[in-house]
UniProtKB/TrEMBL annotation:
GO MF annotation, one: polyprenyldihydroxybenzoate methyltransferase activity
Organism, as annotated: Coleophoma cylindrospora
One Pfam family linked to the record: Methyltransf_25
CDD domains associated with the record: AdoMet_MTases
Methyltransferase domain boundaries: 57-161
UniProt name for this protein: Methyltransferase domain-containing protein
Amino acid sequence: MSSMRPVQSVSTAELYERWAKVYDTDGNILQAIDDVQLPALLESAFAPFQATNPAAVLELGCGTGRNTVKLLSPPYASQISKVTAVDLSASMLAVAQSRCRDRSQGPSRTPAVEFSQYDALHPTALPGFQPVDLILSTLVLEHLPLATFFAAVKSLLKPGGTLVITNMHSEMGARSQAGFVDPESGEKIRGLSFAHEIEQVLDFSKSLGFLPVGDVVERGIEEKDLGDGVVGERGRKWVGISVWFGLVLRLED
Ligand SMILES: C[S@@+](CC[C@H](N)C(=O)[O-])C[C@H]1O[C@@H](n2cnc3c(N)ncnc32)[C@H](O)[C@@H]1O
């Protein structure tokens, strides 16, 4: 049935302006896998930071704040002084702001969080921004050439800083690209994705002075993920295929 669906190819900016309204509820498998896999990467990345030595953090491509809100919650909240969350899409940012406003009304202390529109393809200075100790960027790299992504990161990160990246795996990228079904029109809306291979990411980032901390983690979809409810039925066609990878990098001093 889905092969009969009309498909519309749009720019990345338009994709996320339209996707924002259903991004958190349309059963996207990459978000589900990212939720399961990210904590181990964050644990490694935040290990050097404590309440007495908190990290200034920037989230590049924060989207609807799916992971921003995790940074404002235990165990990370006490290890962070401030979160700057940036994204290309005003609609995605609006959802993130609303989600984090709810969080900051909670009982426990949360780090300050500031949202800004920012396009890594055409970067402009963020007012009052100082390079940070740690950058988190989940499921964003596929939208950008490696040179653009890492140039943006390098301009925003302190020397010696840490970068946590998660991304669509190239095995999935060879078969698909970011997109969603617009519930209003019934159309499949898809954008431009790059199927970056892990070796390419490691080689390119190394040329700019980034070195891996620990191993690159790769994750496929297994039958068990459907049985356990980790992913919904949309995951069935991806069984046996690597869909996600994540890694922590450190920028040389
Ligand atoms: C798949 S979503 C991921 C959102 C969020 N990080 C998450 O994991 O749920 C990709 C995000 O990257 C943002 N993005 C794409 N291209 C960008 C660019 N050139 N500059 C900044 N953000 C960009 C999109 O607007 C979108 O919110």
